[in-house]
């Protein structure tokens, strides 16, 4: 973990490496570590408390990821982005595959989403526009 100076904290603490040896640098710990635990100890933590805090944050991160997986069960196999509905995931996958299943019957233009084809038909490939002088 990288330590940064904390605004409003004036207590210097000596940080310990994983093997318990003092690394010889007095550091201030970020207040965000304290706020994440729900307890306020004046802006500073000992190295043991920081380790405990890191472990708690890791547990909370895993719980959040599990919750996200339940809320959005459909994951993109290419990038891992998650979706609530399988059709939204399929639509997203087309960004990775380049698939364009929606084809204009008049000009052959292809689109990855039906909305793109619909917009094209309304604005670019209308019969009334082709026949008018404005189209050319």
UniProtKB/TrEMBL annotation:
<keyword id="KW-0862">Zinc</keyword>
<keyword id="KW-0804">Transcription</keyword>
<keyword id="KW-0238">DNA-binding</keyword>
<dbReference type="InterPro" id="IPR013087">
    <property type="entry name" value="Znf_C2H2_type"/>
</dbReference>
<keyword id="KW-0805">Transcription regulation</keyword>
<dbReference type="GO" id="GO:0005634">
    <property type="term" value="C:nucleus"/>
</dbReference>
<keyword id="KW-0479">Metal-binding</keyword>
<dbReference type="GO" id="GO:0003677">
    <property type="term" value="F:DNA binding"/>
</dbReference>
<keyword id="KW-0539">Nucleus</keyword>
<dbReference type="InterPro" id="IPR036236">
    <property type="entry name" value="Znf_C2H2_sf"/>
</dbReference>
<dbReference type="Pfam" id="PF00096">
    <property type="entry name" value="zf-C2H2"/>
</dbReference>
<keyword id="KW-0677">Repeat</keyword>
<keyword id="KW-0863">Zinc-finger</keyword>
<dbReference type="GO" id="GO:0008270">
    <property type="term" value="F:zinc ion binding"/>
</dbReference>
<protein>
    <recommendedName>
        <fullName>C2H2-type domain-containing protein</fullName>
    </recommendedName>
</protein>
<feature type="domain" description="C2H2-type">
    <location>
        <begin position="74"/>
        <end position="101"/>
    </location>
</feature>
<dbReference type="GO" id="GO:0000981">
    <property type="term" value="F:DNA-binding transcription factor activity, RNA polymerase II-specific"/>
</dbReference>
